[in-house]
């Protein structure tokens, strides 16, 4: 073991994403064959302290283990402002605190693992069963969405690989707009796969929205898949980001 690893997520008031992140950290620790103290979690927002302070705290633990390298693993699906600006700024503050005593290495974000994530999304789709119908079901990949230029390119690429359309929770086109377009085109079996890491407040809101859309489009058979979730496969993708 040469390094410790800090999984950084966005953070939420809902406890479920944090529990899932901690489970993911345990799975990563098992994959690495390291003791769990070498893997920890932190949040950019809504955490016990600013991210740079969380990094410094884990940095002190890293040094106490006799190690001089800490790798930051951003558990984010989209390359938005958090990945491009906020996390690097927090890492820079922490690095200045330690100077040459500790090397803090910021790794690529999870969303850069497009091939692996495409496989995971496909697995989520395969768990959904449609009623027998002559029409092949159409899928919508629903992401949070980013207003940052190019921020949704990964979602578009994954959707293209899966033969799916894209919809976004915070930007256009919305889920309602895409379902309306499909129904007007004669499509009546529609699957919706949330491109989100874990269950939480947003996935609850999505489920409620889908229930409303079922009433709005009674001729359509709408099926909602699960988000990615903490799994061995997802931990493997994060492990691939590590500088070995």
From TrEMBL:
SUPFAM superfamilies the UniProt entry points to: Chelatase
Record EC number: 4.99.1.3
Pfam families, per the entry: CbiX (PF01903)
InterPro entries, per the entry: CbiX-like, Sirohydro_Cobaltochel/CbiX
MF annotations from Gene Ontology: sirohydrochlorin cobaltochelatase activity
UniProt keyword list: Lyase, Metal-binding
Domain of life, source organism: Bacteria
Record PANTHER family: SIROHYDROCHLORIN FERROCHELATASE, CHLOROPLASTIC
Protein name: Sirohydrochlorin cobaltochelatase
Organism: Microcoleus asticus IPMA8
Lineage: Bacteria, Bacillati, Cyanobacteriota, Cyanophyceae, Oscillatoriophycideae
Gene name tied to this protein: cbiX
């Amino acid at each position: 073991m040469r390094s410790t690893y800090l999984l950084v997520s966005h953070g939420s008031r809902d406890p479920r994403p944090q529990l899932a992140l901690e489970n993911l950290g345990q799975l990563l620790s098992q994959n690495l064959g390291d003791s769990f103290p070498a893997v920890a979690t932190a949040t950019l927002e809504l955490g016990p302290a600013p991210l740079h302070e969380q990094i410094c705290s884990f940095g002190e633990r890293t040094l106490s283990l006799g190690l001089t390298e800490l790798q930051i693993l951003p558990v984010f699906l989209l390359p938005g402002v958090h990945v491009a600006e906020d996390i690097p700024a927090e890492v820079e503050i922490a690095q200045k605190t330690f100077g040459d005593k500790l090397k803090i290495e910021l790794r690529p974000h999870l969303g850069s693992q497009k091939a692996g994530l495409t496989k995971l999304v496909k697995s989520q789709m395969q768990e959904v069963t449609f009623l027998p119908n002559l029409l092949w079901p159409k899928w919508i990949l629903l992401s949070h969405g980013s207003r940052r230029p190019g921020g949704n390119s990964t979602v578009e690429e994954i959707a293209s690989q899966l033969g799916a359309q894209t919809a976004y929770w915070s930007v256009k086109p919305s889920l309602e707009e895409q379902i309306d377009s499909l129904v007007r085109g004669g499509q009546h079996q529609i699957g919706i796969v949330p491109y989100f890491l874990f269950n939480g407040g947003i996935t609850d809101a999505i489920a409620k929205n889908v229930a409303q859309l079922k009433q709005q489009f009674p001729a359509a058979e709408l099926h909602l898949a699960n988000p990615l979730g903490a799994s061995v496969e997802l931990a493997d993708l994060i492990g691939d980001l590590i500088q070995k």
